[in-house]
Structures
1.
Amino acid sequence: MGSLVKNKMNKYINSDKIISRVQEKTGWTRTQIAAKIFDISKNNLGNRIREDRLDFYKLLNWAVNNNVNKEWLITGEDPTIGKDKELVPLDIEVLTKVITGVEDYLREGDIEIEPDKKGRLISVLYERFIKTGEEPDQKTIVSYLKLVA
């Protein structure tokens, strides 16, 4: 079983459990998940789970396009239980620009940050750009990245 953090200490995000939740939601085999969501082989998916390298961009894009609650998918917890709140639709264009900006900067600088920090950073940046109405820009993304990298 692989978690997304190399030291295996993250109790909230677990690659194997995420894939199990996709199976629960879809009824698909791991071979089907590998092909339909990640466009890779089952063996490659197995390696990515073991090596903590799930492609979260593809996973979240699939979740958005299939109305799968992202918090449930990642954590296994339903954020709507016990709460009377309406789910807000995700702006996939803004999310895509944020993820791409973060991934590009990390790749160009050959920088690695823990997946949970990267996830929180993407979430904070996304919320910032949604609340301000500003277009995601690399300068802002890099300034936030420097705080965590």
2.
Amino acid sequence: MTTPYTKAWKTFEEQAILLRERGMIITDFDAAVRHLARCGYYRLSGYWYPMRRPGPGIVTRDLRHMDAPCRDDHFLPESAFEHVAALYVWDKRLRLLLLDAIERLEIGVRVAIAYECGQEDRFLHGKPEKMGISPARMGEYARFFSKHAELESRSKEAFKKHFDKKYGGETPIWVAVELWEFGIINQFYALLDAKLRFRVAKRFALKPDTFESWLTTLRYLRNTCAHHARLWNRELVEIPKTPGSGEADSIRHAFTARHGTNSKLYPTLCLIAFLLKKLQPDSTWSTRLHTHLIEFPSAPHFALRDMGVPEGWESLPGLGGRDAPDTHEPAMD
């Protein structure tokens, strides 16, 4: 049963006063007002949620994992606005780090698809029979090609104008992929036959099903970051598949139950670092992420474990610690 919404509009100053009345420590009132004016009360509430005290009769060993109905509007002791502000800035920097990595991976996947598929046929994306599309999947292919055609027709890219003026007709796949969004890249890969799926995934030392799952997670995470959504303590909607035996052995520890579920961010951070190392062996991204995790703001009600990061993560491979080699070649199923 729903409840009518009766909360009134408040000025930024009134919002800060309300937080203080509910028990939040605000040492610099003007700074808190400025932060509320920049970021918004409702947006920041996702960060101070773990500071809210449990409702009557609720007993739990870890308040961070309680559902919303179990908390009231007042804050636990040592709940400070400056801690919320610090966590917000830390989370913003994490988003920028992830966007940097996902940009490189998206481009790398485009190149891999264009290279492997182009060997078969430079116009493969327009030939469902050569892609091995079964009659049952022609509807999926039609949706893919409709989106592809839409992206081509509305493109204002100089290289596309040049191609149309000089050659006309259908673009080869190494041109087409430069117009595709991450979603259509993901969709096209899923439509490829087993041989091509294997060849593309092998470039990243993965099996096709794992690679496809990780692409879906990366697309979701890219959109999450692009819309400036909170990453800290987020439950992912698109959950990455646990790698099987003989693939990504160096980071399989991140997917084990004792570190939380795959819906937390830690496994995805590890898989991004893994993929970047395959794409660019001299990449320092994982080291930069390692440094950023170490700089997580110290506060009573926040912790890295809220993202599934395990105790002792600093010494584990994957995020700037010891890098264990992945010596296995994925076998074609």
